[in-house]
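User: I'm curious what two different proteins look like when written out as structure tokens. Can you demonstrate?

Assistant: Sure. I'll show them one after the other, since each token string lines up with its own sequence. Here's the first protein:
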Amino acid sequence: MVVSGAGLYNTYESLLPKEVSPFNSLKSKTRGIQHGWGGLTVFVGLKGSKETLGLKASNVWAFTSNDLDRAFRNFVNTDVSEAGYLDIPLMFISFPSTKDPEWEKRFKDKSTCEIVTLVPYRWFEQWEKDRVMKRGDDYEDLKHRIGRRMWKQTCALFPDLQDKEEYFDVGSPVTNNYYIGSPRGELYGIDHNKDRFSPETVAALRPDTPISGLYMTGQDILSCGFAGAMFGGLLSASAVLKRNLFSDMMELKKKI
């Protein structure tokens, strides 16, 4: 018995021989299976404690428009030559150091910031086969141009961070491809388009596969993120054990 958490594309296109992979048949049944958007992440080291910088252990979703769908479509359809010169329409901003109760003991008067957005893989695709850290000036310029725009927008929301930066680096979709094996730099598995949650796709994205003894798990069989992956694991365990573990958990909750 094999349970794969490597994702739908990696499992069916990379780990299984093409002659036995059911992927083409699976994709023909639904329009909901597509690559997700590539993730671009900015990592910032800051001078100052969370008290000094006014940081809290919370996450911020920052949008530039109330019409997020339109703003995001316009952004991802932008030519790469304009990337970084226009506002980034959505950003996830987090301060990981604020969530570590031991942080101040180890790194006094230091803080960290992480900013994430989604970008088209095509902007970075030409460098996907180049060696990490050896992709050249054009690549570095592009990812840092976008990263700097994100940092500028972040500082507009958190003015106390201005001029406190001590470390700055950017990870692109091809960075994700290299380090975590995401085929097109995606952070959240297959795309969360409307068709993904259609009855046909939901029925197709299940732990059981057409190959006897092979099961899928993680966010690709349910939904993205920590909660999606966790409940995907519970679904997979239920399928393997042929037992309703959700019911078991509810009974356990009653007992304790």
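Here's a second, unrelated protein for contrast:
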Amino acid sequence: MTTTRRLALIAGILYLVTFATSIPALALKSPFLDGATTDPVALRWAVVLELVLAIACVGTAAALLPIVRRGDEALAVGFVASRTIEAAIIVMGVLALLAIATLGDAAASPALVALHDWAFLLGPGILPAINAMLLAPALLRARLVPSAIPIVGLVGAPLLLASAGATLFGAVDQVSSVAALLAAPIALWEASLGVWLVVRGVRDDPRPVAAPVDARAGMLGG
């Protein structure tokens, strides 16, 4: 197995880990935050899952950096920065969850619940769109994966930002059918990318987009 294949495999597995942790974590913490239960055990398990999620977020970017930078270094480094910020915001939400678990009642700590909710909006609600706008063009330009995969990411990014904006101004709830529908393309982009990286990996010889015609003519003329 080449280094490129190994890094792609690691990135793909970590992408799938983000799904395996984020969805159960939401299911575990929601009843406590909504006041349906005061048992903090499920909340603590959600904390563990979200810590793994944060690590996986950074791991995907770190694994892809040596690959993607061959096509566009600025976008590759930007993706690492964006993923790191996303992980940091997730950890902020985790700290709020731990504080709520210590108090034992979400209703008694509305400020902490609000902190978690805003972290949930800024982290999983907005940063995945920024991630897609950085990573998808780099993958597309270097033709590292089939073009349909990054195109889905580029389509999904503005839809997720629209959903986050609507949530920010109170038009929709972040955990609602409308928000889920708008977030579906980004989820599809990340899931399909993860599966492709695990099953097929990336091209070992990335091909950047050809230079503009006038630039090529200038080089020929020189």
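A detail about the second structure: The chain has one domain: 3-202.
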